[in-house]
């Protein structure tokens, strides 16, 4: 490319720029001097705002710095002799360009933005609910404990602790995504009277796992998407396909039928 070549001749390669603004040497705890390779230093200069200013005052313009860095390293090789970034021998492998016309047509950029319809439950014409929901609309709660191949031992431990202490309805292990839950999980359901105990207990005993606490109202779709509490980080819940109340195929309100008899007294 011709403009690339221009920069190659106009601008100093990084080694010369560094001579004007020498990089500090670092000494490790064994007294060994650690000095960046030229390539490392070129990247550091490119990314560090303070070094960028330094180099600009040494005669390099910001717009050409990237080109100068790459042009400078074009003749460099790594110590083991392999091709360095910018080396003419280096070629990124990319698939060939697709040929044809987009099925979206050529004018999507001109489509105007319009206000989407609200997907939240019970919104009125303004996009806000007309009144708050009574908390007594909640019949019970579910706790969904998520895990993966790296955290299943934590899930096993937490599940044991729960079943030793709380009269809950415990579900199966789900070792694959199931329903709206996009990772492996297990759940336990519990009655409202346990909420003031289960929430702080899970906060202290989550073992870092992501836990979804959702109420069971007459709207399971909203229960999973809009009425949630999370312990630690949240993760996607794919409940958008669940039916709204009154729609054909809408699920019934969840029942909690405890199947666990605690064997230990809860620690206080
Ligand atoms: Zn649930």
Characterize the structure shown.
29% of the residues lie in helices and 11% in strands. With 268 residues, it is an alpha+beta fold. Among the domains are: 2-73, no CATH class; 135-231, Alpha-Beta Plaits (2-Layer Sandwich). It has a 5-stranded antiparallel beta sheet. It has a two-stranded antiparallel sheet with strand order 1-2. The N and C termini lie far apart (72 Å).
Short précis:
This protein has 8 helices and 7 strands. The protein is an alpha+beta fold.
> How large a portion of the residues is in β-strands, by DSSP E?
5-15%
Low-confidence stretches: 1-21, 60-76
Helix tally equals 8
The CATH class of one domain, by name, is Alpha Beta
The count of strands amounts to: 7
Whole-number mean pLDDT: 81
The N- to C-terminal Cα distance equals 72 Å
Q: CATH superfamily assignment of one domain?
A: DOPA-like domains
How is the biggest beta sheet arranged? 5 strands, antiparallel
Helix content: 25-40%
Coarse shape: extended
CATH topology of one domain: Alpha-Beta Plaits
Radius of gyration: 30 Å
State the order of secondary-structure elements, H for helix, E for strand: HHEEHHHEHEEHEHE
Structural class comes to: alpha+beta
Bound molecules: zinc ion
For the biggest β-sheet, the strand order reads: 4-5-3-6-7
Proper CATH architecture of one domain:
2-Layer Sandwich
């Amino acid at each position: 490319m011709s403009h690339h070549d221009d920069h190659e001749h106009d601008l100093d390669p990084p080694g010369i720029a560094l001579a004007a603004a020498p990089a500090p040497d670092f000494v490790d705890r064994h007294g060994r001097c650690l000095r960046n390779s030229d390539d490392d230093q070129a990247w550091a200069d490119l990314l560090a705002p303070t070094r960028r200013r330094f180099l600009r005052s040494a005669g390099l313009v910001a717009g050409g710095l990237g080109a100068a860095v790459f042009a400078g390293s074009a003749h460099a090789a790594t110590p083991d002799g392999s091709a360095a970034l910018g080396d003419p021998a280096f070629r990124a492998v990319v698939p060939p360009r697709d040929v044809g016309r987009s099925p979206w047509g050529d004018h999507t950029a001109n489509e105007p933005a319009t206000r989407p319809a609200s997907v939240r439950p019970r919104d009125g014409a303004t996009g806000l609910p007309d009144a708050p929901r009574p908390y007594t609309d909640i019949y019970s709660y579910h706790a969904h404990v998520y895990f993966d191949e790296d955290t299943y031992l934590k899930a096993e431990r937490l599940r044991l602790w729960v079943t030793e202490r709380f009269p809950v309805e415990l579900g199966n292990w789900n070792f694959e995504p199931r329903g709206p839950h996009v990772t492996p999980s297990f759940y336990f359901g519990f009655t409202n009277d346990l909420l003031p105990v289960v929430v702080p207990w899970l906060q202290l005993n989550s073992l870092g796992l992501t836990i979804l606490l959702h109420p069971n109202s007459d709207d399971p779709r909203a229960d999973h998407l809009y009425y949630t509490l999370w312990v630690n980080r949240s993760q996607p819940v794919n409940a958008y396909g669940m039916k709204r109340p009154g729609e054909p195929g809408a699920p019934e309100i969840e029942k909690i039928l405890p199947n666990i008899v605690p064997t230990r007294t809860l620690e206080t």
